[in-house]
Amino acid sequence: MAIKFKILIPSLFILLGFLLTAIYEQKIAQLNWSVGKNQLFKYEFSSELLKKRIIAQSNENSDLSSEIRVNLEEANLFSNNGIIPTYRPTYIQVIGTTLVNGVRFLTLKRPLEENIHNGFLQKIQNAFYYERTMRCDKAKDYYESILSEHSDFVREANDIAFVRLHYGYCLFVTGDLEKALENFRIVKEVRPGSSFSESAHAIEKLIEEAKVARATQESETFDKRRKLELLLRSGDFASIISETEKTDTETPEVLLIRAKALEKTGRFSDALGQYLSLSAQREKPNIAKSANARLLLIGHVFLKDERIITIAENNAKALGDQKTVEVVRSESKSISGNGLLDPSYARESNDPNISKQDQETEKDQKPETDLGRKDLINKELDAQLASYSGILKKKNSDSNVLELELSDGRHLLAKFIQLESNVFKIKTSTYGIDVPFSLLKSIRIKNGASGSILITSDSKKGVGTEIQHVGESLILKGQSGEMSFADKSIRSIHLQ
Protein backbone atom coordinates (compact mmCIF):
# COMPACT_ATOMS: atom_id res chain seq x y z
CA MET A 1 0.00 0.00 0.00
CA ALA A 2 2.83 2.35 0.95
CA ILE A 3 4.58 1.56 -2.32
CA LYS A 4 1.41 2.34 -4.33
CA PHE A 5 1.04 5.60 -2.42
CA LYS A 6 4.67 6.51 -3.14
CA ILE A 7 4.06 5.88 -6.85
CA LEU A 8 0.71 7.70 -6.87
CA ILE A 9 1.99 10.97 -5.37
CA PRO A 10 4.72 11.55 -7.99
CA SER A 11 2.27 10.49 -10.72
CA LEU A 12 -0.22 13.08 -9.55
CA PHE A 13 2.48 15.74 -9.54
CA ILE A 14 3.55 14.71 -13.04
CA LEU A 15 -0.08 14.78 -14.23
CA LEU A 16 -0.65 18.15 -12.57
CA GLY A 17 2.53 19.49 -14.14
CA PHE A 18 1.43 18.20 -17.54
CA LEU A 19 -2.01 19.79 -17.19
CA LEU A 20 -0.54 23.10 -16.05
CA THR A 21 1.89 22.98 -18.98
CA ALA A 22 -1.03 22.30 -21.34
CA ILE A 23 -2.94 25.30 -19.99
CA TYR A 24 0.21 27.45 -20.15
CA GLU A 25 0.92 26.40 -23.76
CA GLN A 26 -2.67 27.15 -24.71
CA LYS A 27 -2.52 30.61 -23.16
CA ILE A 28 0.85 31.39 -24.79
CA ALA A 29 -0.44 30.28 -28.21
CA GLN A 30 -3.57 32.40 -27.82
CA LEU A 31 -1.47 35.37 -26.73
CA ASN A 32 0.97 34.99 -29.63
CA TRP A 33 -1.90 34.80 -32.11
CA SER A 34 -3.60 37.82 -30.54
CA VAL A 35 -0.40 39.89 -30.58
CA GLY A 36 0.28 38.88 -34.19
CA LYS A 37 -3.23 39.84 -35.17
CA ASN A 38 -2.95 43.23 -33.46
CA GLN A 39 0.38 43.90 -35.17
CA LEU A 40 -1.12 43.07 -38.55
CA PHE A 41 -4.48 44.79 -38.12
CA LYS A 42 -3.88 48.21 -36.62
CA TYR A 43 -7.57 48.82 -36.04
CA GLU A 44 -7.39 52.32 -34.57
CA PHE A 45 -4.92 53.48 -37.21
CA SER A 46 -7.08 52.09 -40.02
CA SER A 47 -10.10 54.02 -38.76
CA GLU A 48 -7.99 57.19 -38.62
CA LEU A 49 -6.97 56.65 -42.25
CA LEU A 50 -10.59 56.11 -43.22
CA LYS A 51 -11.44 59.41 -41.57
CA LYS A 52 -8.65 61.13 -43.57
CA ARG A 53 -10.00 59.61 -46.77
CA ILE A 54 -13.51 60.84 -45.98
CA ILE A 55 -12.32 64.37 -45.17
CA ALA A 56 -10.33 64.50 -48.41
CA GLN A 57 -13.33 63.18 -50.32
CA SER A 58 -15.66 65.88 -48.98
CA ASN A 59 -13.10 68.66 -49.47
CA GLU A 60 -13.40 70.22 -52.92
CA ASN A 61 -9.88 71.68 -52.59
CA SER A 62 -8.22 68.40 -51.58
CA ASP A 63 -4.69 68.19 -53.02
CA LEU A 64 -3.06 65.26 -54.79
CA SER A 65 -0.24 65.03 -52.23
CA SER A 66 -2.66 64.25 -49.39
CA GLU A 67 -4.53 61.72 -51.51
CA ILE A 68 -1.33 59.88 -52.44
CA ARG A 69 -0.12 59.80 -48.82
CA VAL A 70 -3.40 58.36 -47.54
CA ASN A 71 -3.34 55.69 -50.25
CA LEU A 72 0.27 54.82 -49.40
CA GLU A 73 -0.49 54.52 -45.69
CA GLU A 74 -3.47 52.29 -46.42
CA ALA A 75 -1.47 50.13 -48.80
CA ASN A 76 1.24 49.60 -46.17
CA LEU A 77 -1.21 49.06 -43.31
CA PHE A 78 -2.16 45.44 -43.96
CA SER A 79 0.69 44.37 -46.22
CA ASN A 80 3.12 43.25 -43.48
CA ASN A 81 5.17 41.37 -46.09
CA GLY A 82 2.24 39.03 -46.67
CA ILE A 83 2.55 37.38 -43.25
CA ILE A 84 -0.67 36.40 -41.54
CA PRO A 85 -0.42 35.11 -37.97
CA THR A 86 -1.34 31.44 -37.76
CA TYR A 87 -2.56 29.37 -34.84
CA ARG A 88 -2.38 25.61 -35.38
CA PRO A 89 -2.77 24.01 -31.92
CA THR A 90 -0.58 21.07 -30.92
CA TYR A 91 -2.00 18.12 -28.99
CA ILE A 92 -0.90 19.59 -25.68
CA GLN A 93 -2.57 22.91 -26.59
CA VAL A 94 -5.80 21.09 -27.48
CA ILE A 95 -5.72 19.45 -24.03
CA GLY A 96 -5.13 22.87 -22.48
CA THR A 97 -8.09 24.33 -24.38
CA THR A 98 -10.27 21.42 -23.20
CA LEU A 99 -9.33 22.06 -19.56
CA VAL A 100 -9.96 25.80 -19.85
CA ASN A 101 -13.30 25.19 -21.54
CA GLY A 102 -14.28 22.78 -18.75
CA VAL A 103 -13.77 25.55 -16.20
CA ARG A 104 -15.54 28.08 -18.42
CA PHE A 105 -18.48 25.70 -18.80
CA LEU A 106 -18.81 25.36 -15.01
CA THR A 107 -18.74 29.15 -14.66
CA LEU A 108 -21.29 29.58 -17.52
CA LYS A 109 -18.80 31.32 -19.82
CA ARG A 110 -18.53 30.91 -23.56
CA PRO A 111 -15.95 28.21 -24.54
CA LEU A 112 -12.75 29.05 -26.41
CA GLU A 113 -12.30 27.78 -29.95
CA GLU A 114 -10.06 24.73 -30.26
CA ASN A 115 -8.76 25.95 -33.57
CA ILE A 116 -8.71 29.58 -34.68
CA HIS A 117 -9.52 29.42 -38.34
CA ASN A 118 -7.15 31.68 -40.28
CA GLY A 119 -9.80 32.30 -42.92
CA PHE A 120 -11.10 35.03 -40.63
CA LEU A 121 -7.85 36.98 -40.88
CA GLN A 122 -7.46 36.31 -44.59
CA LYS A 123 -10.96 37.63 -45.25
CA ILE A 124 -10.35 40.81 -43.26
CA GLN A 125 -7.13 41.40 -45.18
CA ASN A 126 -8.81 40.77 -48.51
CA ALA A 127 -11.79 42.96 -47.63
CA PHE A 128 -9.47 45.83 -46.75
CA TYR A 129 -7.50 45.33 -49.97
CA TYR A 130 -10.65 45.62 -52.08
CA GLU A 131 -11.81 48.60 -50.05
CA ARG A 132 -8.60 50.60 -50.44
CA THR A 133 -8.50 49.81 -54.19
CA MET A 134 -12.02 51.23 -54.38
CA ARG A 135 -13.82 48.01 -55.27
CA CYS A 136 -16.24 48.38 -52.40
CA ASP A 137 -18.77 46.02 -53.96
CA LYS A 138 -16.34 43.12 -53.45
CA ALA A 139 -15.13 44.38 -50.08
CA LYS A 140 -18.74 44.51 -48.92
CA ASP A 141 -19.19 40.81 -49.75
CA TYR A 142 -16.13 39.90 -47.66
CA TYR A 143 -17.32 41.91 -44.66
CA GLU A 144 -20.75 40.27 -44.95
CA SER A 145 -19.07 36.86 -45.03
CA ILE A 146 -17.03 37.71 -41.92
CA LEU A 147 -20.15 38.72 -39.99
CA SER A 148 -22.14 35.65 -41.06
CA GLU A 149 -19.48 32.90 -41.10
CA HIS A 150 -16.98 34.12 -38.50
CA SER A 151 -19.21 35.72 -35.88
CA ASP A 152 -17.31 33.81 -33.16
CA PHE A 153 -14.22 35.88 -33.97
CA VAL A 154 -16.07 39.21 -34.10
CA ARG A 155 -16.72 39.42 -30.37
CA GLU A 156 -14.17 41.91 -29.10
CA ALA A 157 -15.14 45.58 -29.27
CA ASN A 158 -12.29 46.45 -31.66
CA ASP A 159 -13.15 43.58 -34.01
CA ILE A 160 -16.82 44.56 -34.06
CA ALA A 161 -16.09 48.27 -34.51
CA PHE A 162 -13.57 47.68 -37.31
CA VAL A 163 -15.73 45.30 -39.34
CA ARG A 164 -18.92 47.31 -38.88
CA LEU A 165 -17.20 50.63 -39.68
CA HIS A 166 -15.61 49.44 -42.90
CA TYR A 167 -18.65 47.38 -43.90
CA GLY A 168 -20.79 50.49 -43.40
CA TYR A 169 -18.41 52.56 -45.51
CA CYS A 170 -18.63 50.05 -48.37
CA LEU A 171 -22.44 50.03 -48.11
CA PHE A 172 -22.37 53.83 -48.29
CA VAL A 173 -20.16 53.90 -51.41
CA THR A 174 -22.36 51.30 -53.14
CA GLY A 175 -25.49 53.33 -52.38
CA ASP A 176 -27.15 51.45 -49.47
CA LEU A 177 -27.38 54.43 -47.11
CA GLU A 178 -29.87 53.10 -44.54
CA LYS A 179 -28.00 49.84 -44.00
CA ALA A 180 -24.77 51.82 -43.64
CA LEU A 181 -26.34 53.97 -40.92
CA GLU A 182 -27.39 50.85 -39.00
CA ASN A 183 -23.78 49.61 -38.96
CA PHE A 184 -22.49 52.99 -37.78
CA ARG A 185 -25.01 52.93 -34.93
CA ILE A 186 -23.49 49.62 -33.77
CA VAL A 187 -19.96 51.09 -34.03
CA LYS A 188 -20.88 53.97 -31.74
CA GLU A 189 -22.52 51.59 -29.26
CA VAL A 190 -19.54 49.24 -28.89
CA ARG A 191 -16.76 51.88 -29.02
CA PRO A 192 -18.21 55.26 -27.97
CA GLY A 193 -15.78 58.19 -28.09
CA SER A 194 -13.16 56.23 -30.08
CA SER A 195 -11.63 56.94 -33.48
CA PHE A 196 -14.04 54.31 -34.81
CA SER A 197 -16.99 56.41 -33.63
CA GLU A 198 -15.46 59.61 -35.00
CA SER A 199 -15.04 58.03 -38.44
CA ALA A 200 -18.58 56.64 -38.29
CA HIS A 201 -19.89 60.11 -37.42
CA ALA A 202 -17.95 61.66 -40.32
CA ILE A 203 -19.55 59.23 -42.78
CA GLU A 204 -22.98 59.83 -41.24
CA LYS A 205 -22.58 63.52 -42.07
CA LEU A 206 -21.77 62.58 -45.67
CA ILE A 207 -24.85 60.36 -45.78
CA GLU A 208 -27.02 63.29 -44.68
CA GLU A 209 -25.45 65.36 -47.46
CA ALA A 210 -26.07 62.51 -49.91
CA LYS A 211 -29.75 62.40 -48.93
CA VAL A 212 -30.04 66.15 -49.50
CA ALA A 213 -28.22 65.78 -52.83
CA ARG A 214 -30.56 62.97 -53.89
CA ALA A 215 -33.58 65.11 -53.02
CA THR A 216 -32.04 68.03 -54.89
CA GLN A 217 -31.40 65.78 -57.87
CA GLU A 218 -35.14 65.27 -58.24
CA SER A 219 -35.74 69.03 -58.40
CA GLU A 220 -36.22 70.25 -61.96
CA THR A 221 -35.23 73.80 -60.93
CA PHE A 222 -31.72 72.79 -59.94
CA ASP A 223 -28.81 72.70 -62.40
CA LYS A 224 -27.76 69.12 -63.26
CA ARG A 225 -24.07 69.85 -62.90
CA ARG A 226 -24.61 71.31 -59.42
CA LYS A 227 -26.68 68.27 -58.42
CA LEU A 228 -23.89 65.93 -59.49
CA GLU A 229 -21.26 68.04 -57.72
CA LEU A 230 -23.26 67.70 -54.48
CA LEU A 231 -23.49 63.94 -54.98
CA LEU A 232 -19.75 63.73 -55.65
CA ARG A 233 -18.90 65.75 -52.54
CA SER A 234 -21.18 63.58 -50.41
CA GLY A 235 -19.65 60.40 -51.84
CA ASP A 236 -22.83 59.06 -53.43
CA PHE A 237 -20.97 57.70 -56.46
CA ALA A 238 -23.65 55.11 -57.28
CA SER A 239 -26.24 57.85 -57.87
CA ILE A 240 -23.84 59.80 -60.11
CA ILE A 241 -23.17 56.77 -62.31
CA SER A 242 -26.87 55.95 -62.50
CA GLU A 243 -27.82 59.53 -63.39
CA THR A 244 -25.14 60.02 -66.05
CA GLU A 245 -25.86 56.69 -67.77
CA LYS A 246 -29.21 58.05 -68.97
CA THR A 247 -27.73 60.10 -71.82
CA ASP A 248 -24.61 60.08 -74.00
CA THR A 249 -24.58 63.84 -74.68
CA GLU A 250 -23.07 65.40 -71.56
CA THR A 251 -20.93 68.47 -71.00
CA PRO A 252 -17.21 68.06 -70.19
CA GLU A 253 -17.94 69.11 -66.58
CA VAL A 254 -20.50 66.33 -66.16
CA LEU A 255 -18.25 63.78 -67.89
CA LEU A 256 -15.43 64.64 -65.45
CA ILE A 257 -17.73 64.10 -62.46
CA ARG A 258 -18.83 60.78 -63.93
CA ALA A 259 -15.21 59.72 -64.49
CA LYS A 260 -14.35 60.49 -60.86
CA ALA A 261 -17.34 58.44 -59.68
CA LEU A 262 -16.25 55.53 -61.88
CA GLU A 263 -12.73 55.75 -60.46
CA LYS A 264 -13.97 55.90 -56.85
CA THR A 265 -16.00 52.73 -57.38
CA GLY A 266 -13.03 50.82 -58.80
CA ARG A 267 -14.04 50.99 -62.48
CA PHE A 268 -10.59 52.19 -63.51
CA SER A 269 -10.85 51.11 -67.12
CA ASP A 270 -14.08 53.07 -67.73
CA ALA A 271 -12.72 56.08 -65.83
CA LEU A 272 -9.50 55.91 -67.83
CA GLY A 273 -11.38 56.18 -71.12
CA GLN A 274 -13.20 59.30 -69.92
CA TYR A 275 -10.02 60.90 -68.57
CA LEU A 276 -8.12 60.23 -71.80
CA SER A 277 -10.84 61.85 -73.87
CA LEU A 278 -11.25 64.87 -71.57
CA SER A 279 -7.50 65.47 -71.24
CA ALA A 280 -7.11 65.49 -75.03
CA GLN A 281 -9.68 68.23 -75.65
CA ARG A 282 -8.62 71.88 -75.50
CA GLU A 283 -11.99 73.65 -75.50
CA LYS A 284 -12.11 73.49 -71.70
CA PRO A 285 -8.48 73.74 -70.44
CA ASN A 286 -9.40 73.49 -66.73
CA ILE A 287 -11.35 70.29 -67.36
CA ALA A 288 -8.42 68.92 -69.37
CA LYS A 289 -6.03 69.72 -66.49
CA SER A 290 -8.28 68.05 -63.89
CA ALA A 291 -8.71 64.93 -66.02
CA ASN A 292 -4.99 64.80 -66.74
CA ALA A 293 -4.17 65.08 -63.02
CA ARG A 294 -6.25 61.94 -62.45
CA LEU A 295 -4.35 60.23 -65.29
CA LEU A 296 -1.06 61.14 -63.62
CA LEU A 297 -2.33 59.68 -60.36
CA ILE A 298 -3.49 56.45 -62.01
CA GLY A 299 -0.29 56.11 -64.03
CA HIS A 300 2.18 56.88 -61.23
CA VAL A 301 0.35 55.56 -58.17
CA PHE A 302 -2.32 52.97 -58.89
CA LEU A 303 -1.18 51.12 -62.03
CA LYS A 304 2.47 52.17 -62.48
CA ASP A 305 1.96 52.16 -66.25
CA GLU A 306 4.53 53.97 -68.40
CA ARG A 307 2.08 54.37 -71.28
CA ILE A 308 -0.38 56.34 -69.15
CA ILE A 309 2.46 58.33 -67.57
CA THR A 310 3.85 59.30 -71.00
CA ILE A 311 0.44 60.41 -72.28
CA ALA A 312 -0.36 62.34 -69.09
CA GLU A 313 3.03 64.07 -68.91
CA ASN A 314 2.83 65.09 -72.58
CA ASN A 315 -0.66 66.45 -71.95
CA ALA A 316 0.59 68.36 -68.90
CA LYS A 317 3.35 69.92 -70.99
CA ALA A 318 0.84 71.03 -73.63
CA LEU A 319 -1.50 72.35 -70.94
CA GLY A 320 1.26 74.18 -69.06
CA ASP A 321 0.69 72.10 -65.93
CA GLN A 322 4.19 70.82 -65.11
CA LYS A 323 3.67 71.60 -61.42
CA THR A 324 1.15 68.74 -61.09
CA VAL A 325 3.62 66.36 -62.74
CA GLU A 326 6.33 67.32 -60.25
CA VAL A 327 3.97 66.87 -57.27
CA VAL A 328 2.80 63.41 -58.35
CA ARG A 329 6.34 62.28 -59.26
CA SER A 330 7.69 63.42 -55.90
CA GLU A 331 4.95 61.82 -53.80
CA SER A 332 4.97 58.53 -55.71
CA LYS A 333 8.74 57.86 -55.55
CA SER A 334 8.37 55.27 -52.79
CA ILE A 335 5.81 53.22 -54.75
CA SER A 336 7.45 50.19 -56.29
CA GLY A 337 6.31 47.22 -58.33
CA ASN A 338 3.04 47.45 -60.21
CA GLY A 339 1.40 50.19 -58.16
CA LEU A 340 -1.06 50.22 -55.30
CA LEU A 341 -3.69 48.17 -57.13
CA ASP A 342 -1.40 45.16 -57.24
CA PRO A 343 -2.30 42.66 -54.46
CA SER A 344 1.36 41.79 -53.90
CA TYR A 345 0.78 41.05 -50.24
CA ALA A 346 -1.34 37.97 -51.08
CA ARG A 347 0.73 35.08 -49.76
CA GLU A 348 1.03 31.55 -50.99
CA SER A 349 0.07 28.78 -48.58
CA ASN A 350 3.52 27.21 -48.10
CA ASP A 351 3.19 26.57 -44.37
CA PRO A 352 3.78 22.80 -43.84
CA ASN A 353 1.35 22.85 -40.91
CA ILE A 354 -1.56 23.96 -43.10
CA SER A 355 -3.66 21.13 -44.46
CA LYS A 356 -4.56 20.77 -48.14
CA GLN A 357 -8.16 21.59 -47.32
CA ASP A 358 -7.12 24.83 -45.62
CA GLN A 359 -4.85 25.67 -48.56
CA GLU A 360 -7.79 25.36 -50.94
CA THR A 361 -9.93 27.49 -48.63
CA GLU A 362 -7.29 30.21 -48.48
CA LYS A 363 -6.86 30.10 -52.25
CA ASP A 364 -10.58 30.77 -52.66
CA GLN A 365 -10.44 33.61 -50.16
CA LYS A 366 -7.54 35.50 -51.73
CA PRO A 367 -8.14 38.43 -54.09
CA GLU A 368 -7.33 37.89 -57.75
CA THR A 369 -3.74 36.71 -58.00
CA ASP A 370 -1.10 39.18 -59.17
CA LEU A 371 -1.07 37.62 -62.63
CA GLY A 372 -4.86 37.43 -62.98
CA ARG A 373 -5.49 40.99 -61.83
CA LYS A 374 -2.55 42.30 -63.86
CA ASP A 375 -3.77 40.55 -67.01
CA LEU A 376 -7.28 41.91 -66.50
CA ILE A 377 -6.03 45.48 -66.04
CA ASN A 378 -3.66 45.20 -69.01
CA LYS A 379 -6.42 43.94 -71.32
CA GLU A 380 -8.73 46.78 -70.29
CA LEU A 381 -5.86 49.26 -70.51
CA ASP A 382 -4.76 48.05 -73.93
CA ALA A 383 -8.31 48.47 -75.24
CA GLN A 384 -8.62 52.00 -73.85
CA LEU A 385 -5.19 53.11 -75.08
CA ALA A 386 -5.81 51.59 -78.50
CA SER A 387 -9.07 53.52 -78.69
CA TYR A 388 -7.28 56.68 -77.55
CA SER A 389 -4.54 56.18 -80.17
CA GLY A 390 -7.26 55.83 -82.79
CA ILE A 391 -8.81 59.11 -81.67
CA LEU A 392 -5.42 60.86 -81.86
CA LYS A 393 -4.67 59.45 -85.32
CA LYS A 394 -8.07 60.53 -86.56
CA LYS A 395 -7.63 63.90 -84.91
CA ASN A 396 -4.21 64.37 -86.54
CA SER A 397 -5.21 63.08 -89.97
CA ASP A 398 -8.63 64.71 -90.12
CA SER A 399 -7.71 68.40 -90.05
CA ASN A 400 -11.01 69.44 -91.64
CA VAL A 401 -12.63 70.80 -88.54
CA LEU A 402 -14.20 74.19 -87.89
CA GLU A 403 -12.33 76.53 -85.56
CA LEU A 404 -14.45 79.17 -83.85
CA GLU A 405 -12.83 82.29 -82.43
CA LEU A 406 -14.88 83.94 -79.67
CA SER A 407 -14.74 87.55 -78.52
CA ASP A 408 -13.62 86.43 -75.04
CA GLY A 409 -10.44 84.90 -76.51
CA ARG A 410 -11.50 81.25 -76.54
CA HIS A 411 -11.03 78.95 -79.53
CA LEU A 412 -13.47 76.05 -80.00
CA LEU A 413 -13.35 73.17 -82.48
CA ALA A 414 -16.55 71.89 -84.04
CA LYS A 415 -17.84 69.40 -86.57
CA PHE A 416 -21.32 70.88 -86.82
CA ILE A 417 -22.98 74.11 -85.63
CA GLN A 418 -26.71 74.68 -85.25
CA LEU A 419 -28.40 77.94 -84.25
CA GLU A 420 -31.39 77.85 -81.87
CA SER A 421 -32.81 80.93 -80.11
CA ASN A 422 -29.61 83.00 -80.47
CA VAL A 423 -27.50 80.15 -79.07
CA PHE A 424 -24.92 78.14 -81.04
CA LYS A 425 -25.27 74.38 -80.52
CA ILE A 426 -21.71 73.28 -81.21
CA LYS A 427 -21.15 69.56 -81.73
CA THR A 428 -17.60 68.31 -81.18
CA SER A 429 -16.45 64.72 -81.65
CA THR A 430 -17.49 63.77 -78.10
CA TYR A 431 -19.99 66.24 -76.64
CA GLY A 432 -22.07 69.36 -77.24
CA ILE A 433 -21.39 72.95 -76.15
CA ASP A 434 -23.83 75.88 -76.07
CA VAL A 435 -22.37 79.32 -76.88
CA PRO A 436 -24.25 82.65 -77.15
CA PHE A 437 -24.30 83.83 -80.77
CA SER A 438 -23.15 87.30 -79.68
CA LEU A 439 -19.74 85.88 -78.63
CA LEU A 440 -18.89 84.64 -82.13
CA LYS A 441 -16.06 86.53 -83.82
CA SER A 442 -15.04 84.30 -86.74
CA ILE A 443 -15.15 80.75 -88.15
CA ARG A 444 -12.50 79.18 -90.34
CA ILE A 445 -11.22 75.72 -91.24
CA LYS A 446 -8.56 74.68 -88.72
CA ASN A 447 -4.92 75.07 -89.82
CA GLY A 448 -6.02 76.40 -93.21
CA ALA A 449 -6.83 72.92 -94.48
CA SER A 450 -8.60 72.46 -97.79
CA GLY A 451 -12.38 72.22 -97.76
CA SER A 452 -15.48 74.36 -97.73
CA ILE A 453 -17.86 75.76 -95.15
CA LEU A 454 -21.57 75.45 -95.89
CA ILE A 455 -24.04 77.92 -94.36
CA THR A 456 -27.74 77.13 -94.50
CA SER A 457 -30.27 79.86 -93.73
CA ASP A 458 -34.04 80.19 -94.06
CA SER A 459 -33.85 81.29 -97.68
CA LYS A 460 -30.43 80.42 -99.10
CA LYS A 461 -27.19 78.47 -98.86
CA GLY A 462 -23.61 79.58 -99.28
CA VAL A 463 -20.18 77.94 -99.61
CA GLY A 464 -16.91 79.56 -98.60
CA THR A 465 -13.67 79.22 -96.64
CA GLU A 466 -14.08 81.76 -93.82
CA ILE A 467 -16.83 83.51 -91.86
CA GLN A 468 -16.65 86.87 -90.07
CA HIS A 469 -19.29 88.08 -87.62
CA VAL A 470 -19.99 91.75 -88.35
CA GLY A 471 -22.80 93.52 -86.51
CA GLU A 472 -25.88 91.30 -86.82
CA SER A 473 -24.70 89.43 -89.91
CA LEU A 474 -22.30 86.67 -90.88
CA ILE A 475 -20.06 87.47 -93.85
CA LEU A 476 -19.09 84.31 -95.77
CA LYS A 477 -15.91 84.73 -97.81
CA GLY A 478 -15.30 82.51 -100.83
CA GLN A 479 -13.66 82.38 -104.25
CA SER A 480 -16.65 84.05 -105.89
CA GLY A 481 -16.77 86.89 -103.37
CA GLU A 482 -18.71 87.51 -100.17
CA MET A 483 -22.23 86.61 -99.05
CA SER A 484 -24.10 88.14 -96.13
CA PHE A 485 -26.45 86.17 -93.87
CA ALA A 486 -28.62 87.78 -91.21
CA ASP A 487 -27.95 86.27 -87.77
CA LYS A 488 -31.56 85.31 -87.12
CA SER A 489 -31.95 83.53 -90.47
CA ILE A 490 -29.09 81.04 -90.02
CA ARG A 491 -29.96 77.41 -89.28
CA SER A 492 -26.68 75.48 -89.54
CA ILE A 493 -22.98 75.72 -90.38
CA HIS A 494 -20.83 72.70 -91.22
CA LEU A 495 -18.05 71.41 -93.45
CA GLN A 496 -18.94 70.38 -96.96
How would you explain this protein's 3D organization?
- A 6-stranded antiparallel sheet has the order 2-1-6-9-10-11, with no helix packed on it. A 6-stranded antiparallel sheet has the order 5-4-3-12-7-8, with no helix packed on it.
- It contains 18 helices and 12 strands.
- Mean pLDDT is 75; it is low at 344-374.
- Helix 3 packs parallel to helix 16 (322-331) and helix 11 (237-244) packs across helix 12.
- A hairpin with a 3-residue loop joins strand 7 (453-457) and strand 8 (461-464).
- The protein has a domain at 402-495: SH3 type barrels.
- It is α+β, with helices and mostly antiparallel strands.
- Residues 335-373 are annotated as: Disordered.
- It comes from Leptospira perolatii.
- Residues 357-373 have a biased composition (Basic and acidic residues).
- This is Tetratricopeptide repeat protein.
